[in-house]
Design a protein that fits this description.
7 helices; Lambda_DNA-bd_dom_sf; about 130 residues; Helix-turn-helix transcriptional regulator; 2 domains; 434 Repressor (Amino-terminal Domain); Cro/C1-type_HTH
């Protein structure tokens, strides 16, 4: 049979290719993150399907939404469940409390940055 019409690539395969391109990772790296063999990753591309467990691991590691990766959503930047939950709670607050919470988050973030810089950062060259 002659291929005069180009066969459409499965949406999950498109999403996996987009993930590889945007995050600059290899299929071997996808396999490592998902905890599967490189042959399994090749199977995802051939079949156009992936297990939800493997997709969830990729979603968490590469910060993309699970519905997007599975082809259930059009937007790559769709909010994850925990982000939606945070927004729901935030939107229930009175406006003045929203500003207070933002200030508290920003202070806490700065505390964490300071802590990790001080205690978790690689030591400076000791020969200087």
């Amino acid at each position: 049979m002659k291929k005069t019409e180009q066969q459409q690539e499965p949406l999950i395969t498109k999403r996996l290719n987009e993930l590889i391109e945007k995050k600059r990772v290899s299929k071997a790296e996808l396999a490592r993150v998902a905890g599967v063999s490189p042959q399994s990753v090749n199977g995802w591309f051939k079949r156009g399907s992936i297990s939800k467990e493997a997709a969830a691991k990729l979603s968490n590691e590469y910060d993309v939404s699970l519905p997007w990766l599975l082809g259930e959503s059009e937007q790559a930047g769709e909010l994850r469940a925990e982000e939606k939950r945070l927004l729901e709670v935030f939107n229930k607050l009175p406006p003045i409390e929203r500003n207070n919470m933002l200030a508290a988050f920003e202070m806490r973030l700065q505390e964490l940055i300071t802590f990790y810089t001080k205690y978790a950062a690689p030591p400076a060259d000791e020969n200087k």
